[in-house]
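Give me structure tokens for this 495-residue protein.
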Amino acid sequence: MARKEIKYYRIPDNYWFRIHFVRPRFKSNIENVLLYMANECCRIPKCSCEEYNRRYFDAIKMFPGNIDMADKTLHNWRTEIPALFGFYKENKEKDTTETSKLATFLHENQDLTQFLRLFLYSFQFPGGHIKPQDIKEIIRNRIKFKPAKTIIQVLKEGNEILNEENTQKEMCISAEEATYCIFNDLRVTSGDKSPDEIAKTILQNRRNKLKYYNPNDKHTHSPKGSVRTKGDMTRYAGDILFYMEIANLLEKRHGYYFLKGNELSALQTFNEDSTWFTGYDYFYGKKKIVTSNISKVESLWFDYVSNSMQPDLFKTDIRSIIEDIKEIDIVFDDRIKDVVSSEDKSTKEIGDLGEAIVCGHEKMRLKINGYDEFIKLIQIVDSPAYRPGYDIDSYEADGTEDHRYIEVKTTISKQKINIYGFHMSPNEWRVAGTIKEHYCVYRLMLSENGKLLFILRDPVRLYKSDQIEAFPRDGMDVTFSPEAFAPTKLLIWKR
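Here you go.
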């Protein structure tokens, strides 16, 4: 019986160009690493390059699981984080390094979903996240490419095509399809092929049952002659798809990525994006490009990315993070309905949801303990003119009328995180020291996989007795170990 011939999709040689970028070794744990490193960078004051580098490297080494890691791997982390995420700015002429706006933004906002969306929103080719000599080749090949925007546009156009065909299917894309039909094709990355044409190519290849990875194709061989694996070929497109998944823009099913259906506002923002870092535009069309001149643009690139960290852009849509909306609707009556159901929900603070959930928890705690008369007295302190240093005025459930003053610290992420620290303002820390045992920090961590609550009573005393760590930085950066503080069961308000 004759062996059936396998047909492959092939990019014409004159259009083949493989773009690449920094791939962090910690990708599988990226949310924990980014939150931890942003926190640690904010602890380091502006100092000499050598001193900053030493403290930065020590912080990497102290990340859980890294203590016995080889120095080579740790040094890879050291170069990958600033190259891709720009967590610090180095001025070699003045011999100073300082923590960047990017790290500060993530540390203060505690919204990893928003941070990754903003990262993807500004991520482009050419960009300062790759080496100057590689940028030169990108410019010579006329590449101007924003991966996340292109992928979203292709999926959108594909959905329209499938809708016209009445197939009742959603458009999706695999890492292989993204690699060969988008990332490695100069017709796409230079803007000569439209998202509609790309979607049609992908759908036509499926109908023709074409394969993508051909181990005999010269495109799958490295310059030194060693054959690349299938994973090697798809890793860069795969990374962007992964980042888009944890940024809650795409969802993965059976190896294919689909547009996240309840994130229409964010997807539309990407789809209509016209922003572009123009710092490299000068070099296009030049016969001679000097690498050192390209290097000078790098600082401008990271300034551009820092300025893209807009607090009101891509605020996390609470409905897409918490699965059971009916559960949330009864947490705190009108306030939680305002957070979840408002037409302007994308601009709501994460803190609003955290406060509402904790307020519901407090109501239920008092009810379970038989203190129903205090339930109506619980209130969220929400006045711009009055800043008492806490978010919720509640009551103890011990037979007294003693108040419990609660500061809620909420983090939202797609995946469960293991970084438990938080920041307290100077006023919050001062009030905590004054109120003492009646002051509690409720550390609330929300993700698609669940909700986790830790309660730290009298944080100043905990710090003085070495039960938690606190580092002065415009207030206090507090860290604690989950082994020392057992999580508290989060109660859901039910009448």
